[in-house]
Amino acid sequence: MDELFYFQKATDISCTCGETHRILTQKTIVDHSLLEQIPPILNQLNLGKKCLIVFDENTYQAAGQKIVTILNQEKYETIPLLLSHNSPTQYLEPDEDTRHQVGTGLRYQPDFMIAVGSGVINDLVKFVAHRSHLPYVVVGTAASMDGYPSLGAPMLVNGYKITFEATPPKAIFMDLDVLVEAPLDLLQSGFSDLIGKTTANSDWVLRHQLQDEYICQYSWDLVKEALRILWESADQIPQRKSEAVRALSIALLNSGFSMALVGDSRPASGAEHLIAHYLEMISLSRGENTSLHGLRVGVATLFIHKMYQRFLKEIDTIDWEKIASPHPIRVNKEILQEKFGSLYPSVEKEATQKITSPMVFIDSFKKPGFTNHLRQMISEKLFAIPDVEQALKRSKTPSTFEELGFPRSLVKDSFLFSRFVRSRITILDILDQAGLLEEYVEEFL
Questions:
Q1: Distance CA 200, CA 61 (A)
Q2: Distance of CA 325 to the CA centre of its chain
Q3: Helix 333-340 with 408-417: angle, nearest 10 deg
Q4: What pTM was computed for the model?
Q5: For residues 82 and 102, what is the distance between their CA atoms, to the nearest angstrom?
Q6: Nearest-CA neighbor of 370 among 325, 429, 318?
């Protein structure tokens, strides 16, 4: 398997996009037998000797217990904090309760914090550490998501998902001996989340071409080679083959680093993530299970990918004048209040902006060769994974919303209304502007 690059230390990059990118994480290591190497690296980072170590029951068994033992042997003063699961669903959530639990550990006045876990635990510790002006490191226990090195921490606030600015970890430790033992659905979640980069970057191209939004090719280059290798090794994910898990881990890290490079989620999150967030938030508000984030993203990507394929075939017949001309959105406040229910006050600001402010487009569509150029740019991103459905099947990952437990009515709403969660436009907005969204949704769902 080809060797994969990832940022092993902090660095500055003078990029061809015109920006100077900065990687802030000082040490990132993906290796076997890594837990034993943590104390000397912590010594190099000079973070202090008193640490708050955060885990839940699963990650305590996976790595937390061993880390506490190792650090105690090396004369660190450890403060173990076991998170309790009080969510009505089967998953730990980054909500008010878990944030409070992490915050209680601060009364011991630690020098730094250690997150032992993956998505939610990393985000919780990142959020609290940032607001407490404490450094933190993360020991990943699953290759399940790409947020380890990112500058954001998604939190649930009154049931609504908001990403807060946060400082990335000083160090990321990904012990392959731990990662290969993670539950299969967590590995599949990471694999599915990565597939979503194909449509997320296609959405970024749309905004770049239609709204002259800044874009960085280097952030895409970080991810595309990893996607190619993952496509080749998809059938090894269910077998937990060490090299496949290593490739998955590095690909996820690079996706996270791509967000760190540009300072937000543009390289990693598009329509597929909005759909996943909508399904999560509405289900949580009803006290229903949500499934894993990456699994939702993977299935949403499959359908957005199909929409993009039709869009590319029809791109020369699309009414670009209609898309670019200001015209009222047919969705109104009353409809959104019905669809978002108790969550509407949280989404109201972004939604109102989309309803009342016409989307601003440049006149690039009038230039000769526009559609061919756009088709070429999107295709490069879209087909980095040649066949999304086959990738999901080969990795034995769910490929339908029914498998994840979501009713068709809620799924349809997610495709029609999730775009109001964020002002940033995606293929869903473009199709709506063209008067095609409902037709596309009916065809592919």
A1: 35
A2: 32
A3: 140
A4: 0.94
A5: 9
A6: 318
